[in-house]
Amino acid sequence: MNSSLKVRFAPSPTGYFHVGGARTALYNWLVARKAGGKFVLRIEDTDETRNAEEWVEGIISALTWLGITWDEGPYRQTERSAYYQRAVERLIADDKAYWCDCTREQIDQRAKERGGPPGYDGFCRDKSKEKTPGAALRFKIPRPGKTVVHDKIRGEVVFDHENLDDFIIVKSNGSPLFVLANVVDDIEMKITYIIRAEEHLPTTPKAILLFQALGVEELPLFAHLPVLVNAKRQKLSKRRDRVAVEDYREMGYIAPAMVNYLALLGWSPGGDREFLTVQEMIELFDIGHVNHSPAFFDEQKMQHFNGVYIRELTVDQFVEECLPFLEKHDWWEGSPTQLWTFRQVAPLVQERVSLLIEAPEMVAFLYRPVEISSDLVESVLRKDARSAQILKEIGEIYANLPEFNHDSLNEATRAYCETIGTPLRKVQAPIRVALTGSKVGPPLFESIELLGKDVTLQRLASAGALIGTL
Ligand code: GLU
User: Fold this and answer.
1) Which of 7, 49, 403, 466 is deepest in the core (most CB within 10 A)?
2) pTM for the full model?
3) CATH node for 374-469
4) Which residues contact 52 (CB under 8 A, 6 or more apart)?
5) 9 and 43 Cβ atoms separated by less than 8 Å
6) Which residues have CB under 6 Å of ligand 1?
7) Closest atom of ligand 1 to CA, residue 21
8) For 418-438, what is each residue's pLDDT tens digit?
9) pLDDT one-digit tens code per residue, 31-50
10) What is the position in ligand 1's atom list of the atom closest to the CA of 11?
11) Is 439 a catalytic site residue?
12) If you classify domain 81-225 with CATH, what class do you get?
């Protein structure tokens, strides 16, 4: 236990909350919970982006859904400018930053004349200029020098200062740049461990130099998490791939399945083990064992996980999880009778879905008139010339059953199959399509029992009529 450990998740609210962000949040959270330390949520909203408020809500709602809880925050950088201002004053007073009024054109022009690489050449570095309206504040990189990032996942990464420009920390409009606000907050919030996406590694030497310039003697630890890639080994991108946690939630992923799958994106508890409870993840997780190579975000595998987790729910939990998905359909009123029917069929559906969004489709036939697509009329009902006769005869048999339950329906249907010398599946296919309008669904006889005798007989007759009147 290391209760002084403090980590943070620091998303920028610039779009839908990405699965990579969720993985970063989860790893931070596991580290905090394992150590008995603290997890801070900090919204890095210094870039005035459109829809920021909506994105912030999305982040908070997704984290809450996933069960990733924070001990402090959410802090918002837009409310913390006094801290950045104070840091800026200190850097100027200590001669670690300077005002620069060079325009982009001037910088490019000089680079061209030098014939060297593009970038800022330190033109204003020793000129002790005053702040003018167009001036930006640049950080004075110590020269010569090297900065070593001791990364828990990548080992030592050395950055030669030759390759670092005196970077801007305050824009000419007065707003602090990401790296400044980020470091000042990490200092103020006493963050001891920075666990974040790999894309931030190139900025880390700048961050370290800022920490030092602001008088921090003991740097936080760093770990940069591997990038997520798709099946073609391309970095996951919102233009190409499905990346929003919200999309997965709307498809009917359940939170524990998603958390378990996300935990494995770059980490493994060892052996072939893949299914873990949150408690086990907390106990076993070790950031030092996170792999540095890209992690394949395999949607199919995550869906398989979801199916496994769905089957582990109690029936009541399953019903509860399905409700929001049922409520999206106009045939669902949520009446006690509708609920009762769903509760009866739920265990059968639970065995057969890997996404909750599939559940309403599978039970819709119980709640709304059946519509048989012309496709199914051709491929199933008209496939066998005897279908019309089968539907008629089975209707008569069902009409005369003394008891209308799945056992009696099963027995009577099997007996009928023997009489006409036809395998059960061939008889079931047109019955299922007639009753449900689909080729797949919960087990047939249980479905018929729930549908009830009257509706069953009516639907058999209508389907029969559909193909009988050629
Ligand atoms: N705000 C940054 C982002 O969303 C994260 C910075 C950090 O974790 O240090 O990518």
Assistant:
1) 7
2) 0.93
3) 1.10.10.350
4) 13, 14, 45
5) no
6) 10-12, 44, 182, 196-197, 200
7) 4
8) 999 999 999 999 999 999 999
9) 999 999 999 999 999 877 66
10) 4
11) no
12) alpha beta
